[in-house]
Amino acid sequence: MVLMNTILVTGAAGFIGSKVSELLLTQGYNVIGIDNLNEYYDVRLKLWRLDNLKKYTNFKFYQVDIENVEALKIIYQLHCLDAVINEAARAGVRYSLENPHIYFSTNAAGCLNILELCREYKVPKFILASTSSLYAGQETPFYEDLPVNTPISPYAASKKSAEAMAYTYHYLYGLDVTVLRYFTVYGPAGRPDMSYFRFIKWIMEGSPLEIYGDGSQSRDFTYIDDIARGTINALKPMGYKVINLGNSNPDRLSRMIQLIEKYTGNKARFKYKEFHKADMSATWADISKARLVLGWEPMISLEEGIKNTVDWVINNWEWVASIKI
C-alpha cells in the first residue's frame, strides 16, 4: 500500500479514466474524480463504471466539465492535490470531423484550464492522456521522437495542441509532465464507438459488421488493464517525457473479428465501406522508452483480452443490447 496521496483524475467515468481510478483506489490513493457525463455515447456505460468506483471510501466524485474553469478552481481549493491525470477528452476520430469545435474546446482549452490551475495551486505532477493518432504519415513502428506535424483529424490536432501546451507549462513553470500516447485501447465496458465493441454487439445480434476498407488494416490493440498500470507508473517525477503505451504487437482487424467469432460462438457477416480518409492503415508502438523509464510492458494478449471483453458483454447483455452504436 502507498502512503495516501491525492490524485485528481479527469474523465473518471470514461473508459480509461475509470480503470485508472479503480487501480489507484486499490493501491491506496485518494482519488478525486471529475466527469461531465456527457451524452456522446450511452451514459449508462459511464454510470456503470462510476458505480464501481463509488464502492471505494477513498473516492470522491464531482460532476464537472473541464471547460468550466471556475468549477474546477473550487475542486483545486478543496483538495491538496499531489498529481492530476487528465483523461477527460472528446474522443473519436470520425465524429471530430462533424463537430471539430467541441474537440478543441475540450481537448485543448479544457487541458489549458487544468494546467493553469496546476500552476496556480502548485500541483507538482501532470499526466496527459494523448494518442497514437498523432503519428499519421510516419513509418511503423512509431517511436516518440518522430515528428508529429501531420494530424489527419481534428481529434489528433486537438491532442497535439494539448501536448504543446503541456510542454509550455513544464518549460515556463517547472511542472513535471508526462505525456502518454495510448494505442487502440480495448476491453470490458469500453466505448461503443470503438470497432471491437460494435463488432461484438453486431455479431451477437446477428447484424452485419460494417468494415471500412477490406479488414487488412492493423492496430496495436492494447488491453485496458495494461494501459492503467502504465499510466500509474508514470506518476513518478520525470521532468518532461513523452511515452508510448502500446502492445507493440499489431494485429489485423480480421484477426480480432475471428477471435470475437470464437468467443461469441457466432459467425460474422460483413458490409464493406470505403476506407475513411481520417483513419490510419496501421499503428505499431515502439515501447522501448516505456520499458526503460516506467518498467512497464503489456501483459494481456489480444486473445485473452477479447475473451474478457466478450464475457463482459454477455454478462451484461440485458442492458448492453439496447446501447446504440
UniProtKB/TrEMBL annotation:
Residues 8-309 form the NAD(P)-binding domain. Keywords: NAD. The keyword NAD applies. Pfam families: GDP_Man_Dehyd (PF16363). It comes from the Bacteria. This is Nucleoside-diphosphate-sugar epimerase.
